[in-house]
Amino acid sequence: MSNEKVVTVTVNGSTVKLATPAHRTLLEALRHEGFVEIKCGCEKGDCGACAVLLDGEPVDSCLTLAWHADGREVTTIKGIGQPGNADPLQKAFIETGAAQCGYCTPGMIIAARSLLKDNPDPSLADVKRGLSGNLCRCTGYTRIFEAVQLAARELRGEGEAA
Ligand code: FES
Ligand code: FES
After folding, report:
1. Would you say the CB of residue 51 lies under 6 angstroms from ligand 1?
2. What is the pTM (predicted TM-score) of this model?
3. Is 122 touching ligand 1 by the criterion CB < 6 Å?
4. N or C: which end of the chain has fewer CB within 10 A?
5. CATH code for 81-155?
6. Of the bound ligands, which one is closest to the alpha carbon of residue 46?
7. Exposure string (b/e) for 146-162, b if CB count within 10 Å is 16 or more?
């Protein structure tokens, strides 16, 4: 007997039905459905590349079963902002050069979004702590931390992200 069921998830405001067995992760199910903006890195909760917001809270989608998302809302990087309607964090990552290969960037921005929601004026230590679950192989992190603080100033009305 198949252990598949259809779960209904709202992804970036649109209803998506995922026919998925019990063991499939949200990462696998959503990428299979075409949401390839969710990046697949370590698949064991170490790198943060796969982060999405689930009902507004950040989760590693590689550690979340698709069935667990049934009836819930997922936000991917495309739900944060799009070209022409970019989020201040996305603009700040571009302005500071914080996205190099870009593979970590969706997860970084998801984590940063969550941090700034809870703490609109983070210190450098707060930013480092907030992004401590996300790995980057390219930037050395300095520009990423700058980007988050630039976006925080912009969101507080104190700065100018591009
Ligand atoms: S792919 Fe999920 S934490 Fe690395
Ligand atoms: S920009 Fe390449 S892994 Fe972070």
Report:
1. no
2. 0.94
3. no
4. N
5. 1.10.150.120
6. 1
7. bbbbbbbbbbeeeeebe
